[in-house]
Amino acid sequence: MVLKGVNLTARRGQVIAIMGNSGCGKTTLLRLIGGALKPTTGTLMVDGVNIGELDQDALYDMRRRMGMLFQFGALFTDMTVYENVAFQLREHTDLPEPMIRDLVLMKLHAVGLRGAHNLMPSELSGGMARRVALARSIALDPMLIMYDEPFAGLDPISLGVTGNLIRRLTDALGMTSIVVTHDVQESLKIVDYVYFVSEGVIEAHGTAAEIKASDLPFVHQFVHGEEDGPVPFHYPAQSYGTDLGLSA
Amino acid sequence: MIASIRSVLQKIGHRVIDSVWRMGFAGRFFLLTLMHSGTCFRRFHLILREVFSAGVLSLIIILVSGLFVGMVLGLQGFETLQTYGSEEALGILVAKSLVMELGPVVAALLFASRAGSAITAEIGLMKATEQIAAMEMMAVDPIARVVAPRFWGAVISMPLLAALFSAMGIFGGYLVGVVLIGVDNGSFWSQMQAAVSFDRDILNGVIKSVVFGVAVTTIALFEGFDAPPTAEGVSRATTRTVVTSSLAILGLDFILTAFMFRGV
C-alpha cells in the first residue's frame, strides 16, 4: 500500500502543493484523483462525485473537467503546438474551425506563446514545452488542474514564469490547482496550502507561512534541504565495517 | 534439494501465468481495437494518414525488392524450364509464384520489418513519454485515437503493397526473361493470362496478404502498447515485433496454403 490514511481537501480557487521525498506516493495521489488508479479503501471525491465508483464513460466525462500537466509536458510529438492545444477542442466539441483557432490562440497567449503556434514540440525548450502543455490542459476551462513536478529541470526564469502562470491561471479561471513538487522555495511563493507526505501518510500541513515557521523535524529538513534528519542520507544497509570485511 | 525443485517449478508457473495473461491481454486488445473501429472510420483522414506512413513510405523497399525477386525468378525459372524445353511457360512460373506465394509472404516480411517495427517504436515511445497517459487524462481513448487508425491503415496497405510487389516481380521476370534472354514476348504474356485465374490464384493471394496484414499489425500495435516505458523496453518490443511477426507470417502461410490448395 503506497498511501495510508491520507485525508486532504482542495477548495475551488486554491493552489495546493503536495510535497515529499521521492517515492512517497505524491504521483500516486494524482493518479488516484485522475481515476487512473482506484483506491483499495477510502473515498476520493471530486466535485461531490466518488471517482473510485465511476465507470469508463462517467470517468471520461469527469476528466473533461480536469486537466493534467505531466512532468515533461507529454506533448504529442507528431503535432504542432497549435494542434496540441486544439486537440481536446477537436475531440470533445463540435466548434467550427475559426472558433477553435481563436480559442487556441487565446490559450497560447495566456502562456505567452501565441507566436510559437507553428512550432513542433522538438523545437521548444523544456520551459516552453511545459507552458504549451499548460495551455493544452486549460483548453476546456477545467475546474481542476493537477501538476506533476511542473518545476523539474527548469532554469530560474522559466521556473518563475511557470509558478506565476499557475497562480494567475488558477485565479483567472477560478479553478483548483494541485501541484506535486519538490521545489519548496518556488512553490511556497504561489500556494495557498501545503501537504507534506512521507511514506504514504501526511506528516504535516498548513499555509505557506505555517510551513516556513514549522519546527517539525521532517518539514524542517525538507524546507531547508538538510542532508540528514528523519529522512536518512544512507539507504538501510548492514554496517559499513561488515561490508568492507573489517569486522567479524 | 526440495527447495530448489520448488523454486524451478515456481519460475515455470510464473512464466506460464504471465504468458496466459499476456495472451488474454492481447486478445482483449484486439477486440477493443475492432470495437473502436467505427469511430476511426467516421474520421477517415486519420486512417489515410496511417496508410501514408505504413503504406506509401514502404513503397521503395517493396518495389525494389519485388523487382529483384522477379528478376531472380526469371533467371532461375528459365534455367529450369529450359531443361524441359518449356521456356515459354516462364510467364506462368513467375506470375504464379509471385501472386500466390512470394508476393504476399515476402511483402509481409518486409512490411513487418519496415512498418511493423516503426509502429511498435512509435507507440512504445508515446507510452514512455507519457503521451498515451496524457491522452487518457484528456478523456480520449488511445485505442480509438491511436491504435484503431494505425490498425486499419496498415491492414488496408498490406494487400496493396503485396499487389505492387507481385506486379514489380512480374516486370522483373519480363525484363530478364523476354528483354535479356529472349523468351518470346507473346508466349510470356499469353500463357500467363491463360494460366493465372482470378478466383483461385489472385484472390487467394489477396486473402493471404489481408490475413498477414491483420497479424503483423496486431502484433506491432500490441507490442508497442505493452512495452515497458524505457529505452530498453521499447527496443526489446521492436525486436519482438519483427521476430514474432515473421514467424506468424510463415506459420499462417502454411496453414492458409494447406486450406487453399490442398483441400484440408
Tell me the overall shape of chain B. Answer: globular
Roughly what percent helix of chain A?
A: 25-40%
Q: Please give the CATH class of chain A.
A: Alpha Beta
Structural class of chain A: alpha/beta
* String of helices and strands of chain B: HHHHHHHHHH
Specify the CATH architecture of chain A.
Answer: 3-Layer(aba) Sandwich
Count of discrete domains of chain B: 1
Fold topology:
The complex is a heterodimer of chains A (248) and B (264).
Chain A: E1 15-19, H1 26-33, E2 45-46, E3 49-50, H2 56-63, E4 66-69, H3 81-92, H4 97-110, H5 126-137, E5 144-148, H6 156-173, E6 176-181, H7 184-190, E7 193-198, E8 201-206, H8 208-213, H9 217-224, H10 240-243
Parallel strand pairs in A: 1-6, 1-7, 4-5, 5-6
Antiparallel strand pairs in A: 2-3, 7-8
Chain B: H1 2-35, H2 37-42, H3 44-55, H4 59-83, H5 90-128, H6 131-137, H7 142-181, H8 185-195, H9 198-226, H10 231-261
Helix pairs in contact in B: 1-7, 3-7, 4-5, 4-7, 5-7, 5-8, 5-9, 5-10, 7-9, 9-10
How does this model look, in words?
The complex is a heterodimer of chains A (248) and B (264). By secondary structure, chain A is of the alpha/beta class. Chain A has a single domain (15-208), classed as Rossmann fold. Helix content of chain A is 39%, strand content 15%. Chain A is built from 10 helices and 8 strands. Chain A has helices spanning 26-33, 56-63, 81-92, 97-110, 126-137, 156-173, 184-190, 208-213, 217-224, 240-243, and strands at 15-19, 45-46, 49-50, 66-69, 144-148, 176-181, 193-198, 201-206. Chain A is globular, with a radius of gyration of 20 Å. The model of chain A has no long low-confidence stretch (mean pLDDT 86). Chain B has 264 residues and is mainly α. Chain B has one domain. Chain B has helices at 2-35, 37-42, 44-55, 59-83, 90-128, 131-137, 142-181, 185-195, 198-226, 231-261. The relative contact order of chain B is 0.16. The mean pLDDT of chain B is 92. At the A-B interface, helix 2, strand 4 and helix 3 of A face helix 6 of B.
